[in-house]
Every structure is written in C-alpha cells, then in structure tokens.
Write a structure and sequence with these properties.
alpha+beta
Length: 199
C-alpha cells in the first residue's frame, strides 16, 4: 500500500531534509579544520645566506663580520661646535705680530704715555696773615695769642683758628699751623721774648 502525501507535508519534509544536509556539511567542515596540523613557521633565511656562496664572498663577509673598529681611529670634536650661543665675528683676523713689530708698538705706547700731561700741581696755601703776640704757660698747657685784621685769637695745640687753621706745635722759635682746606703746614716765626706765666 502506498501512502499518499499532501503537498504541504511534502514541502515540510523537504525543508527538514535540506536543513539536515546543511548541518551535516557544517559538521564535516569543522572536523576538517580541526584535523589541520599547524606547522611552525621557519624563519626566512637572510639574503646573505640565501645567495649561492662562493669562496670570495665568504671571505668578504668574514672580514666585515670581524672588522677591527680600533683601526678606524677616534673622532675629534671641536668644543665650540656644540655651543649655540658662541660669539661669531666677521672681522678679518689680524696677522701675527713679529718681535720687531711688537717692540715698535711698545715704544709707541711709551711715547704716548710720556706725552700725557702731568697732573696739575696742588695750589700753595695763602701766605700767613697772622702776627704773633705772645704765649702763656700754665703747667703743661700753653696758649698762643695771635692777631689778624684786628681780630685776636687764643689757641692751644690741636685747636682750630678761624675754622681754616689748626695749631700744631709751639716752640721758642716758631708756631706751626696747618691750612685745613689743602692740609698744608705753614710755619710762623716768633720772637719768644713775649712769654707770660699764669699762676
């Protein structure tokens, strides 16, 4: 007996069968990928080893491999080469000076110095206008009496007279004064007969 199938049932079975076939094919492909053995990749030989070697090239390569670096010498560097802010002058360099030219230059410099005018001499102090009147002695202290332009002055050693002179020393023959603006010493001769004593 043959069973009759309606078209819907036939279509359904066809779809199921196609799905089953697709599943089987996928399983087979997965198993094939699992069976693939991965082989380790060998490094590619360098161009030097891949080329057919000859006796001449082998010697050259050995020489290059064992090159003696010490024979190359050592580079010398200019210390100014690395300075970014080194001064640069575009002026032409002076020619070297020989000993004769050096001696001539020294003579010229000496003449130039000798031509320099000497410093102006210090002006002399004005002549003394004081007149000695006399002196008085009291123990170790001595007073001197002077006059100038109808003005009388009494001073001891170390004191100022008229803000321009200082009395420095007194003896029987002279009185020494210093003109303070020029720090110049002047001597006033005296006659020591006019001496008084205080008691």
């Amino acid at each position: 007996m043959s069973e009759s199938m309606d078209p819907a049932e036939k279509k359904r079975k066809t779809i199921i069968g196609a799905a089953l076939i697709v599943t089987l094919v996928a399983v087979v492909l997965v198993e094939d990928e699992a069976d693939i053995v991965t082989e380790p990749v060998q490094p590619v030989a360098s161009q030097k080893t891949a080329r057919p070697s000859t006796g001449r090239t082998d010697k050259q390569e050995i020489k290059n491999e064992y090159l003696n670096v010490a024979k190359l010498g050592q580079r010398t560097f200019d210390p100014q080469a690395g300075e970014l802010f080194a001064a640069t002058s575009w002026a032409p360099k002076r020619p070297p000076v020989n000993p004769q030219q050096q001696a001539i230059l020294e003579q010229q410099r000496a003449k130039a110095k000798s031509k320099t005018p000497p410093p102006a001499p210090t002006p002399p102090p004005p002549p003394l206008q004081f007149k000695y009147i006399g002196k008085a002695i009291a123990g170790n202290r001595i007073w001197v009496f002077l006059t100038q332009d109808n003005e009388n002055y009494i001073a001891r050693i170390g004191e100022k007279i008229d803000e321009q002179y200082r009395l420095d020393t007194i003896n029987d023959e002279s009185v020494t004064l210093t003109y303070l603006p020029l720090n110049a010493k002047q001597v006033l001769p005296i006659n020591d007969k006019q001496t008084g004593n205080f008691r």
